[in-house]
């Protein structure tokens, strides 16, 4: 309540209020000065309000006292429960930890005023998780309450922690949170093999590095605490087998280090130890963190291929060896107890030229062809050995045959020399240095001897000097050379090697005479300028040759044109207009019988025809020979032509037997088939009159004669 000393209680004073919450949260009675709250207040939202009050004269509305400021403080009550703002919690603690080991600290917050009463004083307690864990009431630190908690027995716990204000007294508010505690692993479990001994069977043919077996020592720990190390500590297979660890499964992998041989040893015994790699000294009292087991490996017999006594045979033979010469012997045996006989052969893929043979029973290798070291100095062949009882079992041996050299190649020039000598050369001048090569390979190296051949020893032009270092020098023997006299010299050089017996060859050195400059460098070596006749230059010679070639071309053109003029004009038979009749239906040999309409044949009945005897048809009409007329009308020519064709068809072995001509012989007058024409002839009963054809001119005279009714009609 606000009250002014000026206020006499007569209502002349009026009170007003301003500031935070004025009129909305706080109101004032303007007559009495009483301040009231219009709604529920929450200290946690706002703990203080600053207001200003003033007393005014009601009539003049002027202040009667200065404005006064005051603060309204909200007094706290316990209306907020504690809250775990960071919950729920997760934490971990090593297994086997001692009692009192700190796990995690939880914190609850109370929004009430901590300076007023006990509304914000929180006490912690554990509602779930006993008797394994406990909590400090004031700090909220969770600790282990039992010793030797084993992760392998139970690895996770769920705790419920309560925070209660009012120092835990009755009537206080509370909040809860959950804490998940996981026991982390420690190496408190030594490895142990499930069995004291193991046995595995493996075939003797198992390749080196193959896996024989996998064994594993059990360890209840996880992660690094379960990592193992395996080793073979004893047994008769220390050098034959080895063991390694699989990092993912922690298994011990036993593999083969050497080839197994049933005939040599049938079983092996191994003592294997498994040890933890990371041992915790705190738990050494639980026992040694290692274990032992015995592994027995039984070797099973398999049918093995023959085995050679050596992986590689080295043999030598001279290239002069005759066919059938023995080079060496290979040997193989069946390693199995049956000891089956072995037969030998050469893999021809390694001896394509078949230089060698091998005795199938003894393994003796001999030459089958003449050898040449210069072609192939070393032959690498593969010898196959197969069991007689089981040819599928094949062993392979490798033979390297070195061919020994003999002196069978004569020396020769090292290259093709292009030797020149200047026209102004002086006597004793070096014009060429030569060397030699030899395909042979003597053990002490080559030594060549050079000299001029006997026929050139006394020549007056050149001489040869042996340098005693497998080279020789060619020198001039006189001063000056002339191209017009001799442009090329051939110098035979005799070369001998140092072989036993020695071989020799004569090689010819070609020496050209050239025009040289002042430095002795050849400029031109051609001698044509001296060969041409006097007064005739090279350009003139080229012009003469061009004229001769031009004349030859003209002569060839004239001959070709004359031959073309003499050739007869040949018409293409397929384009002859007279043969258009082949495109219509006709009698006789059919549409493809183009010879039937050769007009020359129609007008010449004296053509000699080959008479062919027909075997499948006997002519129904016997034909009589007819005289030859010198001048016969055209219609008779056609009739005779038809008779000739009919006769040929009857005796032709190629004509089909069902040809209509075989039945009717001919059409028209006197034929049993009568006329086959689409136009009625004069002998028919047709009323058609073709006399008008005579009025159409000479071009239609032929038709008028054939179908007209005149007295000269051949068919009347």
TrEMBL record:
<feature type="domain" description="Cadherin">
    <location>
        <begin position="413"/>
        <end position="530"/>
    </location>
</feature>
<feature type="domain" description="Cadherin">
    <location>
        <begin position="85"/>
        <end position="193"/>
    </location>
</feature>
<keyword id="KW-0479">Metal-binding</keyword>
<dbReference type="InterPro" id="IPR002126">
    <property type="entry name" value="Cadherin-like_dom"/>
</dbReference>
<feature type="domain" description="Cadherin">
    <location>
        <begin position="4"/>
        <end position="84"/>
    </location>
</feature>
<protein>
    <submittedName>
        <fullName>CADH7 protein</fullName>
    </submittedName>
</protein>
<dbReference type="GO" id="GO:0007156">
    <property type="term" value="P:homophilic cell adhesion via plasma membrane adhesion molecules"/>
</dbReference>
<dbReference type="InterPro" id="IPR015919">
    <property type="entry name" value="Cadherin-like_sf"/>
</dbReference>
<dbReference type="GO" id="GO:0016342">
    <property type="term" value="C:catenin complex"/>
</dbReference>
<dbReference type="Pfam" id="PF00028">
    <property type="entry name" value="Cadherin"/>
</dbReference>
<feature type="domain" description="Cadherin">
    <location>
        <begin position="309"/>
        <end position="413"/>
    </location>
</feature>
<dbReference type="GO" id="GO:0045296">
    <property type="term" value="F:cadherin binding"/>
</dbReference>
<dbReference type="GO" id="GO:0005912">
    <property type="term" value="C:adherens junction"/>
</dbReference>
<dbReference type="InterPro" id="IPR039808">
    <property type="entry name" value="Cadherin"/>
</dbReference>
<dbReference type="GO" id="GO:0044331">
    <property type="term" value="P:cell-cell adhesion mediated by cadherin"/>
</dbReference>
<keyword id="KW-1003">Cell membrane</keyword>
<dbReference type="GO" id="GO:0007043">
    <property type="term" value="P:cell-cell junction assembly"/>
</dbReference>
<dbReference type="GO" id="GO:0016477">
    <property type="term" value="P:cell migration"/>
</dbReference>
<keyword id="KW-0732">Signal</keyword>
<feature type="domain" description="Cadherin">
    <location>
        <begin position="194"/>
        <end position="308"/>
    </location>
</feature>
<feature type="transmembrane region" description="Helical">
    <location>
        <begin position="530"/>
        <end position="559"/>
    </location>
</feature>
<keyword id="KW-0677">Repeat</keyword>
<comment type="function">
    <text>Cadherins are calcium-dependent cell adhesion proteins.</text>
</comment>
<dbReference type="GO" id="GO:0005509">
    <property type="term" value="F:calcium ion binding"/>
</dbReference>
<dbReference type="GO" id="GO:0008013">
    <property type="term" value="F:beta-catenin binding"/>
</dbReference>
<keyword id="KW-0130">Cell adhesion</keyword>
<keyword id="KW-0325">Glycoprotein</keyword>
<dbReference type="InterPro" id="IPR020894">
    <property type="entry name" value="Cadherin_CS"/>
</dbReference>
<keyword id="KW-1133">Transmembrane helix</keyword>
<dbReference type="Pfam" id="PF01049">
    <property type="entry name" value="CADH_Y-type_LIR"/>
</dbReference>
<keyword id="KW-0812">Transmembrane</keyword>
<dbReference type="GO" id="GO:0034332">
    <property type="term" value="P:adherens junction organization"/>
</dbReference>
<dbReference type="GO" id="GO:0016339">
    <property type="term" value="P:calcium-dependent cell-cell adhesion via plasma membrane cell adhesion molecules"/>
</dbReference>
<dbReference type="GO" id="GO:0000902">
    <property type="term" value="P:cell morphogenesis"/>
</dbReference>
<dbReference type="InterPro" id="IPR000233">
    <property type="entry name" value="Cadherin_Y-type_LIR"/>
</dbReference>
<keyword id="KW-0472">Membrane</keyword>
<keyword id="KW-0106">Calcium</keyword>
<dbReference type="InterPro" id="IPR027397">
    <property type="entry name" value="Catenin-bd_sf"/>
</dbReference>
<keyword id="KW-0165">Cleavage on pair of basic residues</keyword>
